[in-house]
Amino acid sequence: MKTLFLIFLTLTSTFFFSSFSQEASASGETDLETYIVSVEKPAGLLESNLHDWYTTFLPETTASLSSNQQRIVHSYRNVITGFAARLTPQEAKAMEQKEGFISARVQRSFPLHTTFTPKFLGLPQNILRAGNASNYGEGVIIGMIDSGIKYDHPSFSDKGMPPPPARWRGRCDFNGKQTCNNKLIGARSFVSTVRGIDLPWEEAYHGSHTSGIAAGCPVEGANVFGQANGTATGIAPRAHVAMYKACAVTCDDGDLLAAIDAAIDDGVDLLSISIGPPSPFPFYYDVIALGAFRAIQKGIFVSCSAGNDGPYPSTVINDAPWILTVGASTIDREIRATVNLGNNVELHGQSLFQPKDFHPRQPLPIVHPAAISNNESAAFCEKGSLKNIDVKGKIVICHMGQLRIEDQGKEVKDNGGAAMIVFNEQADGYSTLAVANVLPASHISYKDGLVLKNYLISTQSPTATISFQGTLIGKSQPAPQMASFSSRGPSTQSPGILKPDIVGPGLNILSAWGVSIDEATNPFNVISGTSMSCPHLSGVAALIKSAHPDWSPAAIKSAILTTAYTADLNGNPISTEQNVSATVFDMGSGHVHILRALNPGLVYDIEPDDYIPYLCGLGYSEQQVRYIVQRKVNCSTPTLIPGAQLNYPTFSMVLGAGDQMTYNRTVTNVGRPFSTYFSKVLSPQGVDVKVMPSVIRFEDLNDKASYTVTFTRLENVTRSSIIGQGSLVWNSIGDDGYKVVSTIAVVFV
């Protein structure tokens, strides 16, 4: 199931893209590839001369190429000193002899990883008349690094929107009539093709969906097939949107670098990136980590999707500490399709397509291809697998696999099947999809799948029907609950930093779409992934930035993390897709709480230079750290710090027998003057936690206070897990009720 969430659920079933194949140049070379080349800028070189200097690294044979055959694809100015160019391996090797050369590597390809969610997240229901929530992001520019945008979608209308801030320096690169406005204030493409740079028009539809979630303006009557009906609105509907298209059929990291580079130049306040590497990379080798660091140096907040490789441990990506890493959770809305078995047992599943004319006079026979075919692909209803199985007029049972549910349904329908039931494998538990099926269908949980299989065994003539109840609120599994696909920690690149940071809505989310799938005038779609949870948090960050324009990216992240909640709507601990309590490595600090994040009381701030001793402490060489921070550094031993020593809002550590660790933290008062806070600790099982001092006081706003926390692993304590979790809470004294929570994560070795 995890692959199904990697991008969007109505396109091709290929989610991890192959590298872009470059055509041969006029010189007759047939093995050109796009390389990302890093170089060291000479002292005194003006930025205006960078591109010309970059061309000196190219082989002399390219000098005669015409402008449309130039080898340089992108010239970078911000994220790195370097460029992307089409080269042969031999030409890339020859560059090593040139003065100022640092490295060259072939670019990699990255995968692209709502009407109801603002209300679910606690925003006032009448979003335009509410008098709080920081004017809903007004004055903030969100840069979307994505797959383009449908500029004429009503979610991007500028009715009532003010002009962009004076600092905006971007542009709109659509051809023809005026296509940008005061909502969609910029659109550029960095997708390189053999024909040059593409237009920012959406091809994959992913970018319109994520942009609508983050900052779409209100659209009444939004629905798909009449389901999830309501007013679709982004989390920050008064914020401006700028689209930087870095993905089409591929998401090549040279294009990603160029998109981030331009967004920094253009003056965005936030970057929302629902894209990530196929696996975790060291930060100096990860273009999103590189671009994000340069962004936070410029005061730009960056949120990224955590990845869709859950529920397996240590799969989280985009895990640099200067990035807000967002996992995915559910909402308490379902689009119900109930399977009514012949023994009168009901199994509640989901389907976005809810036909009104599916009323068989009697229950239909069930066929389970996995039980009657030796062809494994038949169990998953893969293309061509059912042609020799009698499914005509029957309900066909398909196992959840790597194929899209819609494609499974097409195979069933093409072979005469009347309906389909898809059930989860064990890993996906209770996470079910509401998708635009091509025939009557229901996607049920693993547990209900076991009930179904037991029923098939118990009778020689199993039958069922499917009934459709439409959109239901508050009737689903406990919410929020972790979505099965959401990638989990601990971080492999930096175990001293708890990742993911936070979770937000990412399962069955409605937002803008590039084409109509139900013949609607205003197209919307319901899709799933951490690609959807990320822009929810980007919108939250825009609200905070609008309310507190002088806050740093680290302060905004701190506000989000220290005010999160860890209980579902029933008051029980947030659970995983298996209906067991989620751990801190599943959900980080917990689920975002928008209104509390706007007024957190205290924040943990980090300056960009504070990351240098942390990066040195990861064992990176001075050159590798320099590549990230773009200046010379000194990684001498006294300056090194472990990851957990960074002034992060959470604590994450590995404790062996007898280990004792002491970490320092500094908090800044952003609540009210003359305030006092006292500490309260919920210690992880088997760990003693001491905080000094236990009371901190502030006379004025922006005053700082420091404290130390000592973690000691206790001997002879029986633990129920190799993971320990707890919290350190600073509670304010007085009527304001500030509660600043730092999550504690421990791995015992």
From TrEMBL:
Residues 370-451 form the PA domain. Residues 1-26 form the signal peptide. InterPro entries: PA_dom_sf (IPR046450), PA_domain (IPR003137), Peptidase_S8/S53_dom (IPR000209), Peptidase_S8/S53_dom_sf (IPR036852), Peptidase_S8_Asp-AS (IPR023827), Peptidase_S8_subtilisin-rel (IPR015500), Peptidases_S8_3 (IPR034197), S8pro/Inhibitor_I9 (IPR010259). Pfam families: fn3_6, Inhibitor_I9, PA, Peptidase_S8. It comes from Linum trigynum. The active site is at 146 (charge relay system), 206 (charge relay system), 531 (charge relay system). Keywords: Apoplast, Glycoprotein, Hydrolase, Protease, Secreted, Serine protease, Signal. Residues 645-746 form the Subtilisin-like protease fibronectin type-III domain. Residues 137-570 form the Peptidase S8/S53 domain. It is found in: Secreted, Extracellular space, Apoplast. PANTHER family: PROPROTEIN CONVERTASE SUBTILISIN/KEXIN (PTHR10795). This is Uncharacterized protein. Residues 34-103 form the Inhibitor I9 domain.
